[in-house]
């Protein structure tokens, strides 16, 4: 049975919704695919539901081909397991929490690691039961601070989430690879360009993690890639560490006056003016060591002040710092923090060693001092002397101070070398469409998922977690496939295969269209039939362009001459086809 | 690709879950179809998900055949529309409520009348757009006070809910009938016995409402039916009103002493002893008029005392009273209520008229007095005289008192006449599996859903609401189709068509099973293949019986002689079939 526009539930709109910024949001609303219910919460109208079902089918088929079994969990889950893993707290405001009539705490699950872990614990007990990968396609909830861009960042969204369970690390590697391969097949079938980037596991914990990013200017993520094949998201980019330089022959550090040097540039200018290099090369910002004071708020509420040293020509990149310090939250240091640490001389902060102050009268001992990987042993720096209006020149890392640790805090820039030696990197915008994690034993440990191994001993299971954002993918496809007239669906996910339009006042055109629709349906094609009488061809064509079905058949005046037009939505090409040749032309 | 038990996610259990009372709950858990997550909240395991998908497919097909269009709403919805219809309050503790990070109120929708109404208001504006019926298959939430019986009464459950929109009452009748017909087809395809009973619309408001009840001893509802075809749920049963009797010639009422008559029986005994009827017939409880004091708590919090008069041989049935007084809640009258109304003489309460007290020194004016339909004009009663230790004999309804209204408060009993004249009724237990409502204009009125009618005037839309409990139906099918060994699925919803079991130590049996499985799959059958090595035939057969796939093929020792056994799970019949005849035998 074809879907007829005379009685289909559809209303196309001429105006963009006022809250829409990106094309997918505007067009999906205007073309009657989705409708907003609350910020970041949408209802699916018939056309949208059809596209979503097609994406889900592709995902499901590839999951099953990869040996994963489908289950379905409730969105409403009890608090306790999420308390054990600390996600009840760590998720912060992003978790929808509620109580039932008895006052018991529940949440709307953002992902289901805990529930899947407990299910396997509940049912399985032997290594013989493993490996196992189970998945669901399910509606998830995240109370985003700034839901935006329609389906691209919603508060309710459909995800395919899969979880793998293995006894051995090699098993986890294999399960991870199977999901990773399935993701490649899924995105290929969906015609979605993707880049696999090394990712930080973030709040999920675990060891190995890769993101599938779709390069797009509307993307929220910046990622790094080299022509030689390296790719990582900015958080996971690893700075190339310079070779250590021997201390022999390095001159001693000198403390020098440096009044009125509130910025790196003023410091460099002063250095070049008052203290030029003997060899005549100019000092640059890269010769200075900038020390940035940050405050960490640990999960237990404790506030810790840390100092991060990085070359003066680099900025601290908050995304990278946040990942490096997770699960602590990173805050700017305020007056109160400085007051508690009088050893921090604002504008003249320098490094120090665990043993105590290197320079300066007041020791800053007790504060962790961390450095960028470029601050390798033997590198010389102009930096604060921990004394008002004084800097130190020629301070040597590893000789004059020893940091408490190394941290990836600095921004990544085009031209930085890729860590795998594959050349300089460039930066690009992308949107996460999939994520594969090796969770390792973290969840199984906390929730007690153990099985008997081959030797009859209890072994903690190692897990993976694999997610694809179904509704986000739908929006990204719309983002990639549209023009100024409307949506242009690729055939794999189009709501219908063919959109047949009967136009004009001649009943013969409508009758011919009926025949063509019947023939197309008999040939297994899904047909949307614009059988609305009394509408101008212009209105019907505009709707067809807006809806974006890949092939449009127009039965109009040409029917009298035995022809219809076949219109390719993507190319705009229109071809005259004899009435009895439509099925062949579209197969 | 067949599903192989060697790597399927399944664990059958030998023990019933400790919290399970009914067979469907026990068996669905033991056979690995569902798993409890919280009270009334379940996860769906692969087998359960397959059965659920088959039920959903049947429901979807019949909805589409009835011209309904599928949409999908979020479970999470904002409060405001539910406030306008007052359901935010009326649902009481049964509504899951929550707040987002900004403190905005949300709910997990128990049904979606408000959201669908607003969607249509949002998109449609003309009578030409109607009629329209849209539906979804979606997970709903209700915070039941006593979730019970597994899926039969859960707090999260899957429903198909449909809503119709029409301009005219006749249109609504047609849309209602189309859904009602679709429900009949759905239940017939599912092999589910059903009785369509008149129902009260309850909290949904509206005018006409019918329930589809499945007769079952585990049912929560009592319904009434006659051999002549009448059926109603107890709340909707209408008492046959006796003909009014002319007052002419009826004797005057007499107030008589009646000490120590705390119960109807003691009153009847006293009447027969002290005040026998002149014609010698004995007084019975049916001759007395019992006056029951109730307290109503109105939605605005106001507490009202009412008195309900009904024949002394009947009991007040709370379900019926609650429906009659909805949306007020009904409470027992307490000492404080009596204290506020000193005219109510406990044990001797009688009727009165709107004009004031009929009898008694203290007037009970201001209290509504409602009567059972049997208290017709001209009927004579023994009842309280509103005076201590006194009753009145021969008090005539309509002559000596006029009630403020009629109420269906009395219980329904086997043998009561059906209101349509189709004979005496019997009572039976049933479980609601579907519900069709004519909501009328209530929601459209409150939410402002109007369209331009043929005359260009704004007309309020009239609506219907139609629900089927998908997960409940699954449980009811399991309830109906099981034996002491396990589940016995009907073919229409079975998770697989055929369960092939390879047994024994002979590789030939496993090889033969592989061939049969491949042939069955090639013939389009869905196959579950028990290819587990080293398990005893007894364990495999027990699992097959527990899982309940309709046809079981056993490839064992017979393979050497060229035969397998085909076992019908429902009848228990086992037939020997040649190896190359299995597909034919199962088609």
UniProtKB/TrEMBL annotation, chains A, B:
<keyword id="KW-0030">Aminoacyl-tRNA synthetase</keyword>
<comment type="similarity">
    <text>Belongs to the class-II aminoacyl-tRNA synthetase family. ProS type 1 subfamily.</text>
</comment>
<comment type="function">
    <text>Catalyzes the attachment of proline to tRNA(Pro) in a two-step reaction: proline is first activated by ATP to form Pro-AMP and then transferred to the acceptor end of tRNA(Pro). As ProRS can inadvertently accommodate and process non-cognate amino acids such as alanine and cysteine, to avoid such errors it has two additional distinct editing activities against alanine. One activity is designated as 'pretransfer' editing and involves the tRNA(Pro)-independent hydrolysis of activated Ala-AMP.</text>
</comment>
<dbReference type="InterPro" id="IPR050062">
    <property type="entry name" value="Pro-tRNA_synthetase"/>
</dbReference>
<dbReference type="GO" id="GO:0005524">
    <property type="term" value="F:ATP binding"/>
</dbReference>
<dbReference type="InterPro" id="IPR004154">
    <property type="entry name" value="Anticodon-bd"/>
</dbReference>
<keyword id="KW-0067">ATP-binding</keyword>
<keyword id="KW-0436">Ligase</keyword>
<dbReference type="InterPro" id="IPR004500">
    <property type="entry name" value="Pro-tRNA-synth_IIa_bac-type"/>
</dbReference>
<protein>
    <recommendedName>
        <fullName>Proline--tRNA ligase</fullName>
        <ecNumber>6.1.1.15</ecNumber>
    </recommendedName>
</protein>
<dbReference type="GO" id="GO:0005829">
    <property type="term" value="C:cytosol"/>
</dbReference>
<dbReference type="Pfam" id="PF00587">
    <property type="entry name" value="tRNA-synt_2b"/>
</dbReference>
<dbReference type="InterPro" id="IPR002314">
    <property type="entry name" value="aa-tRNA-synt_IIb"/>
</dbReference>
<dbReference type="InterPro" id="IPR044140">
    <property type="entry name" value="ProRS_anticodon_short"/>
</dbReference>
<feature type="domain" description="Aminoacyl-transfer RNA synthetases class-II family profile">
    <location>
        <begin position="40"/>
        <end position="490"/>
    </location>
</feature>
<keyword id="KW-0547">Nucleotide-binding</keyword>
<dbReference type="Pfam" id="PF04073">
    <property type="entry name" value="tRNA_edit"/>
</dbReference>
<dbReference type="GO" id="GO:0006433">
    <property type="term" value="P:prolyl-tRNA aminoacylation"/>
</dbReference>
<keyword id="KW-0648">Protein biosynthesis</keyword>
<dbReference type="GO" id="GO:0004827">
    <property type="term" value="F:proline-tRNA ligase activity"/>
</dbReference>
<dbReference type="InterPro" id="IPR006195">
    <property type="entry name" value="aa-tRNA-synth_II"/>
</dbReference>
<comment type="subunit">
    <text>Homodimer.</text>
</comment>
<dbReference type="Pfam" id="PF03129">
    <property type="entry name" value="HGTP_anticodon"/>
</dbReference>
<dbReference type="InterPro" id="IPR002316">
    <property type="entry name" value="Pro-tRNA-ligase_IIa"/>
</dbReference>
<dbReference type="InterPro" id="IPR036754">
    <property type="entry name" value="YbaK/aa-tRNA-synt-asso_dom_sf"/>
</dbReference>
<dbReference type="InterPro" id="IPR045864">
    <property type="entry name" value="aa-tRNA-synth_II/BPL/LPL"/>
</dbReference>
<dbReference type="InterPro" id="IPR033730">
    <property type="entry name" value="ProRS_core_prok"/>
</dbReference>
<keyword id="KW-0963">Cytoplasm</keyword>
<dbReference type="InterPro" id="IPR007214">
    <property type="entry name" value="YbaK/aa-tRNA-synth-assoc-dom"/>
</dbReference>
<dbReference type="InterPro" id="IPR036621">
    <property type="entry name" value="Anticodon-bd_dom_sf"/>
</dbReference>
<dbReference type="InterPro" id="IPR023717">
    <property type="entry name" value="Pro-tRNA-Synthase_IIa_type1"/>
</dbReference>
<dbReference type="GO" id="GO:0002161">
    <property type="term" value="F:aminoacyl-tRNA deacylase activity"/>
</dbReference>
């Amino acid at each position: 049975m074809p879907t007829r526009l005379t009685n289909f539930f559809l209303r196309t709109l001429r105006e963009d919704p006022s809250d829409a910024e990106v094309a997918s949001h505007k067009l999906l609303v205007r073309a009657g695919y989705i409708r907003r219910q609350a910020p970041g919460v949408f209802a699916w109208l018939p056309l949208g539901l059809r596209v979503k079902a097609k994406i889900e089918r592709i995902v499901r088929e590839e999951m099953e081909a990869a040996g994963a079994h489908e289950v379905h969990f409730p969105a409403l889950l009890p608090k306790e397991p999420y308390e054990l893993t600390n996600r009840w707290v760590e998720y912060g405001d992003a978790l929808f929490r509620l109580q039932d009539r008895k006052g018991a705490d529940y949440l709307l699950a953002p992902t289901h690691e805990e529930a899947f872990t407990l299910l396997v614990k509940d049912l399985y007990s032997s290594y013989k039961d493993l490996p196992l990968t189970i998945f669901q396609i399910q509606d998830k909830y995240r109370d985003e601070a700034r839901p935006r861009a329609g389906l691209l960042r919603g508060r309710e969204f459909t995800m395919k989430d899969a979880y793998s369970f293995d006894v051995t690390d090699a098993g986890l590697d294999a399960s991870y690879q199977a999901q990773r391969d399935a993701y490649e097949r899924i995105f290929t079938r969906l015609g979605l360009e993707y880049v696999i980037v090394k990712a930080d596991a973030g709040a999920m914990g675990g060891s190995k993690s890769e993101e599938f990013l779709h390069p797009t200017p509307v993307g929220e993520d910046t990622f790094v890639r080299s022509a030689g094949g390296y790719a990582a998201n900015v958080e996971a980019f690893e700075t190339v560490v310079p070779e250590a330089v021997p201390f022999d022959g390095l001159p001693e550090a000198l403390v020098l006056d440096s009044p009125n040097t509130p910025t790196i540039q003023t410091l460099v200018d002063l250095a070049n003016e008052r203290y030029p290099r003997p060899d005549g090369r100019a000092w640059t910002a890269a010769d200075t060591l900038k020390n940035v004071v940050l405050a960490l708020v640990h999960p237990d509420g404790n506030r810790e002040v840390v100092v991060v040293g990085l070359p003066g020509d680099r900025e601290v990149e908050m995304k990278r710092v946040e990942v490096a310090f997770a699960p602590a939250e990173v805050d700017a240091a305020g007056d109160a923090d400085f007051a508690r640490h009088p050893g921090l001389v604002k504008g003249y902060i320098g490094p120090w060693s665990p043993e105590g102050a290197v320079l300066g009268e007041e020791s800053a001992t007790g504060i962790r001092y961390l450095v960028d990987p470029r601050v390798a042993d033997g590198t010389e720096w102009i930096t604060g002397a921990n004394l008002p209006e004084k800097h130190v020149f020629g301070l040597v890392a590893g000789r004059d101070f020893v940091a408490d640790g190394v941290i990836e805090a600095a921004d990544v820039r085009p031209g930085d070398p890729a860590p795998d030696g594959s050349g300089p990197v460039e930066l690009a915008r992308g949107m996460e469409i999939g994520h594969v994690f090796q969770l390792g034993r973290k969840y199984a440990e906390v929730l007690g998922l153990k099985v008997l191994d081959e030797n009859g001993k209890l072994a903690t299971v190692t897990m993976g977690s694999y997610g694809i954002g179904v509704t986000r993918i739908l929006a990204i496809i719309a983002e990639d496939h549209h023009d100024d007239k409307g949506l242009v669906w690729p055939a794999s996910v189009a709501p219908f295969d063919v959109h047949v339009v009967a136009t004009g006042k001649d009943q013969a055109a409508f009758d011919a269209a009926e025949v063509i629709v019947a023939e197309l349906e008999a040939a297994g094609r899904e047909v949307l039939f614009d059988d609305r009488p009394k509408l101008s061809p212009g209105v019907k064509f505009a709707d067809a362009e807006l809806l974006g079905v890949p092939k449009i058949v127009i039965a109009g005046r040409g029917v009298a001459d035995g022809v219809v037009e076949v219109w390719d939505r993507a190319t705009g090409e229109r071809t005259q086809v004899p009435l009895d040749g439509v099925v062949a032309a579209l197969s």
